[in-house]
Amino acid sequence: MSSVNDTKFNSVVFLLTGIPGQEDIHFWISIPFCLMYVISIVGNSIILFIIKTDPTLHEPMYIFLSMLAVTDLGLSISTIPTTLGIFLFNSREISLDACFLFFIHSLSYIESSVLLLMAIDRFVAISNPLRYASILTPPRIARMGLFFVLRSVALNIPLPFLLKRFRYCRANVLSHSYCLHQEVMKMACSDITVNSIYGLSIKVLMVGLDSLLIFLSYVMILKTVLSVASRAESLRALNTCVSHLCAVLLFYTPEIGLSVIHRFGNSSSHFLQILLGYVYLLVPPLMNPIVYSVKSKHLRARIIRMFIKSRVNLSPDSNAARGLVG
Prior knowledge:
Rhopdopsin 7-helix transmembrane proteins, 2 strands, 75% helix, globular, transmembrane helix, sensory transduction, olfaction
């Protein structure tokens, strides 16, 4: 622990944090964490498998949903080693180079972009349904997806280089089980003005701009829906947006809250930082496949059919019948 308290040495590693004060029960806390990770990975994998194998789901809405599922899988897989390492093996150390990779930032910005694309998809589907398929063609969707992925990666590339300029001589204990740029830069004993301005700029450019465009998309959707004479048709159109609205709230609420607390919060908000950190990490990948499976009638039907088919194939009676036929 002397390395943690020494303020005059150049830190070799950072120490990740589980839930402070609960170290004795970290193993038991790991059980629900493992369960959430398993549900997230299995749920998103099932959605990807069904969309890929069912030609009737090769529509723009489901293509965007598959993009969201891939991003959620990336978020879950990239944080499993550090999070479960802390709770199961008390493995808290992470090297500077590993901490500076910031996969979580790139993936989060990609998810923000995918949610914007899904908002555009809902706007086109409601405002111009007859040209929906001709506007959102697969090549156009691929180009939009590639642009947003490259945008997210390109804007995050400078972060490790900006941080490597510093000498880290302060307490090197992080607040979460993963590394965040806005927290790591505060560990430096140098002027972090450039990092702070750049980090805040890309946050505003990515999350701020995406959320603003999503808001404007829904303003236009409401304007279109309210112009429809039939109330039943209006409700039916708005019902197609419920899943996306849930995904937006699940992602942006902890994302914005965590960023604000880290930049402008004080020591009294430490527990809130930890809580929002785990919500930000675990809840969107966990809930997105559940929400879309519940709200999408076609997707729900395919999932139910897949499980029924699996049960029939695994049942002893069906295996016996196959043996008799053979």
